[in-house]
Design a protein that fits this description.
- By secondary structure, the protein is mainly α.
- It has a domain at 26-65.
- The chain contains 3 helices and no strands.
- It has helices spanning 11-27, 31-47, 51-64.
- Helix 1 (11-27) runs antiparallel to helix 2 (31-47) and helix 1 (11-27) packs parallel to helix 3 (51-64).
- The radius of gyration is 11 Å and the shape is flat.
- It is found in: Cell projection, Cilium; Cytoplasm, Cytoskeleton.
């Protein structure tokens, strides 16, 4: 997923990619990276005013705590 980031062309795609990368780090118990990508996903979701992805990103960040 990280290799795909530079190729992402839309805000929704970036939001989704950041979230998926964060989920992968969460599964690997790398909580700092999971929280970082959750935060990046939240910022991208804020940029496109997508409430669903704002919630998803917030949940990911909480799970990484």
């Amino acid at each position: 997923w990280e290799e795909k980031l530079p190729l992402a062309c839309g805000g929704l795609e970036k939001t989704w990619l950041f979230h998926e990368i964060g989920r992968c780090y969460l599964e690997l118990k790398r909580y700092g990276e999971a929280r970082d990508y959750g935060s990046r996903s939240l910022m991208a979701a804020d940029d496109i005013s997508d409430e669903k992805w704002q919630l998803n990103a917030s949940v990911l960040m909480a799970q990484a705590e």
